[in-house]
Amino acid sequence: MEYLIDLQNVSRQFGDVEALRDVTLQLPPGRIGLLGPNGAGKSTLLKILMGLLPPSSGSGRILHHELTRGSGAANWELRRDIGFMPEADALVPGLKGVEYVALAGELFGMSRRQAQRRAHEVLTYLELEDARYRKLEEYSTGMKQRLKLAQALVHDPPVLLLDEPTSGLDPSGRSAMLRLLLQLGKDFGKSLVLSTHLLGDVEQVCESVVILLNGEVRRQGSVGELCARRQNRYRLQIQGDPNGFLEDLRLEGVELVHDNGRGEVRVAVPPDWITRTFFVLADHHGVAIRGLMDDDESLEELFYRVVGRT
Amino acid sequence: MTTRPAAPVLLTYRPWRGQLHGPWHGIWAIARTSLLMLLRRKLFWALYAFSGMIFLFYFYGQYLQSWIAMQLNEQELRLGSGLVGITVKPKDLLELLKTALRLDGSGYTYRSFISFESQIVMIVQALAGSILIGNDFRFGSIPFYLSKPLHRWHYLGGKFLAVAVLINLMTTIPAIVLFIEYGMINSWDYYVDQWRLLAGILGYGAVLTVCLGLTLLATACGLRRIVPMIMAWTALFVFARLLGDGLAYGLGLNASWRLIDLWNDIYLVGNWCLGMPHGSIRPQPQPEYWEAALTLSGVCTICVVYLHRRIQAVEVVS
Question: Which tens digits make up the pLDDT trace of A168-182?
Answer without folding.
Answer: 888 888 998 999 999
